[in-house]
Amino acid sequence: MKTYLSHLLLLISFIFTSCTGQNSKVETIEPKSFQELLSKTSNAQLIDVRTPEEFNSEHIDKSTNINWNGGNFEAEVAKYDKNQAVFVYCKAGGRSAQAAAKLSEMGFTKVYNLDGGMMKWNAEGLGKPIAKNSGMSMADYQKLLNTDKKVLIDISAKWCGPCQKMAPFIEKMKEELKDQVIIIKLDADENKSLCQELKIEGLPTLILYKNKKEVWKNLGFISEEDLRKKL
C-alpha cells in the first residue's frame, strides 16, 4: 500500500512539474521591462499579432506583423528560430497571450508577452506621439463633464470581447438611469490621442466623474450588478 501511494505521489509530482515547466516558457511582462529586455536581446524576434490595419496605424519599431486571427499564424511563425527569444504583443494583451501560449506549445523555448499591449505601452509613454487630430480632443472631453449629473465614460472597442459582453446592459442602464447618470461611449480606436492622454492601459475602461472629478475607475469586465452598485 505504501509503495502504491509513493508511486502515485511521484506521478502527481511529475505531472505538476511538467505542466509548470510548459507554462514557464511564457513570461508576461510590463512595458518598460519588455522594452529593456527587447533592447538587450540580440536577434530578437518581435511579432505584432494584430490585424494589418492596426499594425499600419502604429506599431513598435522592427516588429513583424503576423495576424493571430489571419488563418496562417502557425505556418508563418514556424519559420522562426524556436531557440531564439520571441516577443509578442497586440492591442490590449488578449490576442498576444493566446499567441504566446501557441508559440510555447509549438516548442519555442522563450516567449515574452507584452502586458497590456500597445495601450499600456502608450499609456506609459513608450509609444510614438499620436496626432492630436486623432479623434476627440481633451478640451472636448472636458466639456462632456460640464453637468450636475454623474458622468460615466465607457471606453471600448468593437474587437474587445468583454466590451461587447457589457454593451447590452450598459446601453440598458443608459436609458434607465438617464436622470442620474450620463453614460457616454467612446471608441478607443477612433480616439487614440485621447486614450494616450488619459493613460488608458486596457479595455474596457470605465471612468465615473462627479462634479468634473474622477471618483471611480475600472479596467476590465464588470458585471451589471456590480456596476449598478457603483452608480
Task: Please give a structural write-up.
Strand 2, helix 3 (52-57) and strand 3 form a beta-alpha-beta unit. The strands form two sheets. Strands 1-5-4-2-3 form a five-stranded parallel sheet. The chain starts with a helix and ends with a helix. The protein has helices at residues 2-23, 31-40, 52-57, 73-77, 94-105, 117-123, 138-143, 161-176, 192-198, 224-230; strands at 26-29, 45-48, 64-65, 86-89, 111-114, 150-156, 181-187, 205-210, 213-219. Helices cover 42% and strands 19% of the residues. It is built from ten helices and nine strands. By secondary structure, the chain is of the alpha/beta class.
- Enumerate how many helices there are, as a single number: 10
Q: How confident is the prediction overall: mean pLDDT?
A: 90
Distance between the termini: 60 Å
Query: Spatial order of the strands in the main sheet?
Result: 1-5-4-2-3
Along the chain, the helix and strand elements come as HEHEHEHEHEHHEHEHEEH
Strand composition percent: 15-25%
Instruction: Please bin the fraction of helical residues.
Output: 40-55%
Overall geometric form: elongated
Gyration radius, rounded: 22 Å
Q: Main β-sheet, in a few words?
A: 5 strands, parallel
Give the beta-strand count. 9
Structural class: alpha/beta
List the uncertain runs. 4-23
